[in-house]
Design brief:
Length: 381
């Protein structure tokens, strides 16, 4: 009896369920293991951009159900010494809140028959010639043809494969409160029209865990310097009236020279975590998925059991294709963060002028086109 190729996906965040749907519809048998007991209740808001939406559109009726708001434009504002200034206008996007979007992806994966097992943290991978045996912290074991690590920034799969590394704290923390970039002296707020706001400031490290601070900590922010009216454009009032406030650090990691070892491969933030200043984290994970599936189909169109040699070809082509693009975007995101959150009036005025200059010049248009034009014009998956 011919059986479908089994694939273990580690992580049920944003990338895992999307990858599982594509694997399922193309003849594989994916199963998702997630360390958390259920979908995350907290988390940040982020932007779906054209390249990410293009991949999601390959799943019938998914894009129409995305629980977000189309953003007709992105406006950059600054307030220094009480003077309000519009720096530039931007481009259409979709703002989404992570918990609702993740739930949609999980529901979609289940609709396609994908099994998701919660409270299973992968801690050990034992590889043989044709399979990978995964051991979980609760004692469960499972075996598959290959494993894809989609377990995010603090990926245990990545650590197991390549060892612990120092994550690069960008020096900034984000406080999530409810389409405008507001810049001030040592601060930056992104406000999305979905009852959620994001403020990025420089501060002490706070590890990303999506949990809200207690009421006293939240009130400290509501009544602190970020609620001052001198910030301009009503930004202080948004902070003061924020209903839910989460504080977490912004990280990226050293570039990996390889994203796989044997029959285990990394995807999304597990492979190339980035600070969020280009808004490309989830979108690049979707690009990863598209190219991974395209190459899997190219080298194994019948979805048969994969030999080590064939899997090596798939993983190598995928890695070589994606390494340069994602590394450039990680570097670009950090540069944007360093530009946006600066202290001192002279530095802030230089920042504002730099933002104003890139509003619509040829270089900016080319960079946006290159970022958003992926991952395909005609679907080859």
């Amino acid at each position: 009896m011919v059986t479908n190729t089994k694939v273990i996906i580690v992580g049920a965040g944003i990338a895992g369920p999307v990858l599982a749907v594509f694997l399922k519809t193309r003849g594989h048998d994916p199963i998702i293991y997630e360390r958390l007991p259920g979908p995350a209740e907290g988390g940040h808001v982020f932007v779906l951009q054209p390249n990410g939406i293009r991949v999601l559109s390959l799943i019938p009726e998914l894009v129409e159900q995305i629980p977000g708001h189309p953003l007709d434009g992105l406006i950059h504002c600054s307030c220094l010494d009480g003077v309000e200034d519009i720096l530039r206008f931007g481009f259409p996007l979709i703002g989404v809140r992570r918990p609702e979007f993740q739930q949609l992806l999980i529901d979609t994966a289940k609709k396609y028959g994908v099994e998701i097992k919660w409270s299973h943290q992968a801690i050990e991978f034992e590889q043989s010639e044709d399979t990978v045996k995964v051991t979980f912290a609760n004692g469960t074991k499972d075996t598959a043809s290959f494993v894809v690590g989609c377990d995010g920034l603090h990926s245990n799969t990545r650590i197991t494969l390549f060892g612990k590394e120092k994550v690069d704290f960008t020096g900034m923390v984000r406080r999530r409160l409810s389409l405008v970039n507001n810049f001030g002296n040592g601060r930056h707020m992104i406000a999305y029209p979905i009852a959620e706001d994001n403020i990025t400031t420089r501060g002490a490290e706070a590890k990303e865990d999506w949990r809200m601070q207690n009421e006293e900590q939240q009130n400290g922010i509501r009544n602190g310097p970020f609620s001052e009216s001198t910030w301009g454009f009503g930004t202080g009032d948004l902070v003061k009236t924020g209903q839910k406030i989460v504080k977490y650090g912004l990280y990226d990691r050293p570039k990996l020279e390889s994203w796989f070892k044997g029959r285990i491969v990394l995807l999304g933030d597990a492979a190339h975590p980035s600070s969020p200043h280009l808004g490309q984290g989830a979108n690049q994970a979707f690009e990863d998925i598209y190219h991974f599936m395209r190459l899997l189909r190219k080298h194994n169109p019948s979805a048969d059991q994969l030999s080590t040699e064939l899997l090596l070809r798939v993983f190598t082509d995928y890695q070589d294709l994606r390494l340069l693009r994602t590394s450039e975007l990680v570097r670009g995101a950090r540069q944007q963060g360093e530009l946006r959150v600066v202290e001192g009036l002279d530095a802030c005025r230089a920042r504002d002028e730099a933002i104003r200059k890139v509003s619509d010049n040829d270089a900016a248009r080319k960079a946006r086109h290159e970022m958003w034009s992926g991952p395909f014009t005609e679907n080859e998956m």
